[in-house]
Amino acid sequence: MIRLALESDEKWAVVEFTPWAATDLGSLTGEFYEVIASAMPEKGKRGKTARAMLMSAAPVATSVMKTAAEGFFDQRFGTGTWQKIADTATSSTLDELGNYKPTPNPFRQQFAALSKAIERTGAKVLVIVDDLDRLHTDELLAVMKAVRLLGRFPGVHYLLSYDKRTMLDLIGASDLAGSDPDRARAYLEKIVQYPFELPPLQSAHSRREVTGQITAIAHRYGCDLTGTDTRSGRNWDLIDDLLALLPFIDNTTLRAIYRWCAQVDVLMALLGPGHLDLLDAALITYLRLHHEQIYDRLPTWRSKLVGDAPRAIVLSDSPRDTAEDWLTRLRNEAPGMSEPELTDVYKILVYLFPKLPHQLYSRTRPLSTTPQVHHDEFFDRYFMFTLPVGDISDVTAAKEVSSLLSDGSLPEGGVLRTFIAAGGGDQRLALRKLRRELGHAVTDAPPGCVLAALEHLWPCLLNEHGDLSLPGPGQDIAAMLIGQAVDASSDTDDARAAVNQARQCVGLRGITQILVEFRRGRDDYPAPIAAAVTDVRDEVLGVCMADLTSPQPPQEGQVLSFIYFLTTDMYAELRRRIDSAGLTQLDVAARMVAKDSNLREELQGFYHEPFEEIYPREYWDLTQFPDPPSVDDLPEREDYSIDARLAQAKFAMHSIMLGITSNQPD
After folding, report:
1. How far apart (Å, rounded) are the C-alpha atoms in residues 364 and 373?
2. How close are the terminal C-alpha atoms of the chain, in Å?
3. Per-residue pLDDT at 662
4. How far apart are CA 375 and CA 372, in angstroms?
5. Are residues 625 and 589 in contact, defined by beta-carbon separation less than 8 angstroms?
6. Which tens digits make up the pLDDT trace of 59-100?
7. Most buried residue among 293, 447, 550, 634 by CB atoms closer than 10 A?
């Protein structure tokens, strides 16, 4: 502020003195002379003369200060003092002086001559000396001596910037003050003639700075500052959440704010755009700078931190840690931290890692698609400052997914294809990346492209049994592609054609496993999907009837293959067909026995729920299940003949009706 005000005034020259540039007391004094010389007017004889004299005087002044440091210089120069000056001055110094030759007691004469030369220029000089409180004690005293020695030049003023408490501590630790705070204060008052204390940074100002800095970082790396929680519909604001979680912002300095924001910027730059969540990066960086002991422990607590918030109610006898357990853990790691600080840090951890037990009034993390730290695949990035070995760049994944949707296949030799082919953990990581990036890019793809992508990806989406893992990234990926094929179709006929094409690609069982995703948590399919699956629906009902009327299950599947696909209306249609075919409850129940099941183990192989969808319990008729076998007479597990299944169905139905067991498979 002062610099800006004076730089616009032609009468003033503002220069900075950097005490860090000097290695000892002598070079410190010489640096002072050079700084003042640089402020002299460049035009005109007087300015050039003053500049030359100051530059020439620097070596002599350095000698004086060296002598002063040894204790020989006080307020006047004696004979012994001059001898030392003469011994340390070099011939090059005398050459530089030219016609300006030292005489006995040279410093006073030079000082007077220099003062007169500076005064004749009419220059007004402000020398800014910043960060004095960051020097060591001996360095600080050296600067103070130099200021006191050279501070009487006419028109030359010094602006010393420092933290007063730190300065008094440094001076008090020296032999000069002898640990006496009053002497330290008195010494400082002798040097500083006009003290001016800056008012503390107000909350509004610090928040303004944080907002400006974080906003600039967000724009630099393409991060959203606002959004809507897709789970709750709540609007969120990154800056608001950040300010609410970091109480230090209301009681800090500009230097601390700039340092923190600069570190956030560096972390974002090291990973690159699209690889970190800005809010998480800012909070993790805050912990690293202000609570290092806690930050250092986070990687060792990884298994307790990563993951989503529990969806079920945790019973009291569960081994899961409580909030108080975590506070105790934090106390042990940072014993010097106050209770309010502990609470604030834990609130940050809960926000970053929703898996942790929440306290009352804890701020919750909005659901977002950004690479947040609580996800296992992103956690290491925030602590390694780079993509860990074995990770996949999200930017690279996005480019390859774009190629998938435009070309119908992943690039040959690409990262995703390589990781998928490797199998195991690499394949799972690649599928998670695929799922994530498809969510961003698939909404613009036409039906033909997404169906080609589904055909290309299908083999790698299946588990070792040839099925989709439910739930899992494979099912999510396939459902996203089918959903887009339906949404992007021009009408219902085109949507049905797209689903039928997918059915030909992945098979009947495969398409039903995909479609199940669309009715998760609901009784029926969304209207566009329901209209598009009519042909698949009819085919499934036909296969179910073939299973119910054949001694061997059809190759396309059996009733149990489609129980998650069938809706209430489909079960009702199946019941009408069953009645028209004259089938009995025993015929149907026999098809509810799973292969390789063992009904001796609490009927785990009998699926009563789909049977109950066809025949509500009040209509069960045990007379249709005559002569049930005893436990000892049940068929072996490997026997899946129709006779074995009929016997198992009789045993299961009588057991359920008589209340022998209530532990049924769902």
Report:
1. 14
2. 73
3. 43
4. 6
5. yes
6. 555 554 454 444 433 433 444 543 444 444 434 444 444 444
7. 447
Q: Which residue has the tokens 């799922």?
A: 435
- Quick: pLDDT tens for 424-476: 889 999 999 999 999 889 998 999 999 999 999 999 998 888 888 777 889 99
Q: Is the pLDDT of residue 260 over 80?
A: yes
What are φ and ψ of residue 43, in 5° steps? -105, 150
Rg of the chain on CA atoms, in Å:
41
Among residues 284, 258, 256, 257, the alpha carbon closest in space to that of 270 is found at 284
**What is the pairing mode between strands 226-228 and 235-237?**
antiparallel
Return the axis-axis angle of helices 45-69 and 25-38, rounded to nearest 10°: 170
Report the DSSP pairing between strands 156-160 and 124-129: parallel
Look at the block and give the residue holding tokens 């570190």: 263
- 294 contacts 269 by C-beta, under 8 angstroms: no
Report how far residue 30's alpha carbon sits from residue 645's, in angstroms, rounded to the nearest whole number.
102
DSSP line for 245-264: H-GGGGG--HHHHHHHHHHH
Band (604; pLDDT cuts 50, 70, 90):
low
User: Under 8 Å CB-to-CB from 435, ≥6 apart: which residues?
Assistant: 473, 476, 477, 480
Spatial separation of the C-alpha atoms in residues 70 and 85, rounded to whole Å: 12
CA contacts within 13 A on the Cβ side of 18: 3
Query: Alpha-carbon distance 483 to 311, whole Å?
Result: 26
Beta partners for residue 160, in sequence order: 129
The DSSP output letter for 593 is B
What DSSP string runs through 213-224?
A: HHHHHHHHTT--
| Reported pTM | 0.67
Q: Taking a C-beta distance cutoff of 8 angstroms, is the pair 641, 655 a contact?
A: no
- Token reading at 641: 């003949």
How far apart are the C-alpha atoms of 272 and 222, rounded to whole Å? 10
Joined tokens for residue 101: 């030759």
Sign of the torsion formed by the C-alpha atoms of 74, 77, 79 and 81: positive
What would the mean pLDDT of 308-323 be, rounded to a whole number? 66
Given a contact cutoff of 8 angstroms between Cβ atoms, the answer to whether 513 and 467 are in contact is yes
pLDDT: is 47 or 29 the higher one?
47
Average pLDDT, the chain: 84
Q: 207 and 258 in contact (C-beta within 8 Å)?
A: no
Report residue 568 as tokens. 């209430």
CA–CA distance from 640 to each of 105, 356, 603, 635, 644 (Å)? 117, 48, 15, 9, 6
For the beta carbon of residue 581, count every other beta carbon within 10 angstroms.
Answer: 11
Distance CA 347, CA 356 (A): 10
Q: Is the pLDDT of residue 235 over 80?
A: yes
Mean pLDDT of 39-48: 84
Give the Cα separation of 321 and 371 in Å (integer).
26
What is the DSSP code string of 268-336?
A: HHHH-TTSS-HHHHHHHHHHHHH-HHHHHHGGGGHHHH-SPPP-SPPPTT--PPPHHHHHHHHHHH-TT
What are the residue boundaries of the structural domains of the chain, listed by start? 2-162, 203-384, 394-535, 584-657
In this prediction, residues 617-641 reach a mean pLDDT of 89
Q: Is the pLDDT of residue 625 over 90?
A: yes
